[in-house]
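Weekly structure sync, notes
Attendees: PL (lead), two postdocs, one rotation student
Agenda item 3: pending single-chain targets
PL asked that the sequence for the first pending target be pasted directly into the notes so everyone works from the same version. It is reproduced below exactly as submitted, 550 residues in total.
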Amino acid sequence: MTDIAPPRRRDPALVFFRAAAVLIALICLLPLVAVAIAALAGGSGTLDQLARTVLPRYTGATLALVALVALFSFLIGTGAAWLVSMTEFPGRRFFEFALVVPLAFPAYVLAYAYTHVLDHPGLVQTTLRDITGWGPRDYWFPEIRSLGGAAAMLTLVLYPYVYLLARAAFLQQSASNFIAARALGSSPLAAFLRVSLPMARPAIAGGVLLAVMETIADFGTVAYFGVQTYATGIYASFILLGDRAGAAQLALGLLAFALLLVWLERLSRGGGRVHTLNRRQEPHGRMPLSPGSRALAFLLCLIPVLGGALLPLLILGTMAPGSEQDLLSRRYLGFIRNSLTLASVAALVTVLAAVTLSYFHRLYPGPGARAALTIGRLGYAVPGGVIAVGLIFPFAAFDNALDAVMEARFGISTGLLLTGSIWLLVLAYMIRFMAAALTSYAAGQAQLNPSLDAAARTLGQRPLGTLWRVHLPILTPSLLTALLIVFVDVMKELPATLIMRPFNYDTLAVQAYRLASDERVQGAAVPSLVIVAVGLLPVILICRQIGRTR
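Predicted structure, written out during the meeting:
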């Protein structure tokens, strides 16, 4: 394949795309630099105080949560992917898609649903006491509001990351190696552990890493369950205590931890590659199972679907009618309007930025373009709370400086023009979800033959015309996928929205969190159901895509 000849260096389109890409990269880099500067400016006194009081607790809880979610997401996601990809059992075709559905649920929504039925006054314990006649201290019941409960909620909604990537890896493997291992006397389980699993390790590690990143970024679940992690510490320091230096230092610690995880995952891969010796891929045949094994496979796939989707939907559906929350009231229509406005604008801005970075890299694939793409992808490793803190510091300083100048020279107070505005919140969403948009769009762009660009240029099209008239019409499915994924991610985002939203500008996620925090869990069911309904859209899209894999 011939490389695309870059346009002339003085071409106005190239100048435009270079300037836009540099601006986008600087915006994505701004919160990271701002957090580092604010944390260092806070001095060692604040850090010493944090180390003596809350830092050990935050560190221990975060590490324990990460370890539990990583372990069980790996076990559930990898095991389910192998069963539906390589074996035959009743309900397999249903589970191929159903195992993805929990991805539509924010973890905090599951937390609200299960607390309603498993807490001390909930249906399960009340029924248990009625049947046995026990008092509150006569029996032991697992505490849902605990670190273990938070890990369970996060695992149930995050294992699909591992499942999707592991299933794709298993389906792309040739059956030759597996058959060879079986011919040499290995049992199906041994062949899976020694051959299939190591070959799929990079994809599985990527899925586990995504689950871990979402875990350290989670705020709604851990805050509701009273688990003190770095995410809750940032919010408490910044909003409740007004300690900006402490919030910045906690944010820097969380950022360092996230980047360390990314580095360790890449280091563990090293330069290893998995190749097949045969040019012709031999597809796996589905292994028949014994009656007992078929029943076990069905049960193992049913449990995560039941726990991550069916039961929460049933619980939320029974909670909503008695919640006294009118979805059609003026107040709720305002929540829906705010959520849709933020999600729509953020999705459009994020995808435009992703197209700009990707197309600039296609036009001029030099070190600068690669650096801009790398910086744009950093957002997936940065929790929303860290981005929020990192953006507020520099923009608040700018607003205060501008207000001081205008007050001194003209006697006019400009107030906070940018801090607390919708546009600053949109920037936070763009930085946070740029990686998702880049992945969706760049995957489609990579399939475009460079000859299309050469043909367009021969016909007199400049780079901007080639993008508008050739690339975008062909890549419409990739664009729509990117828009939809970012739209739904913004609808579910909680920590950045809580910290940065304009005064009295609440979304469905904020309303659900507020009601649950006030112990009005039934009320939280209504906005939660709307968020889940919207979240099902990309899940359906993903299911259609993986359905075409074979």
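Discussion points:
- Residues 11 and 344 are 33 Å apart (CA to CA).
- The two ends are 26 Å apart (CA to CA).
Action: rotation student to compare against the earlier draft before next sync.
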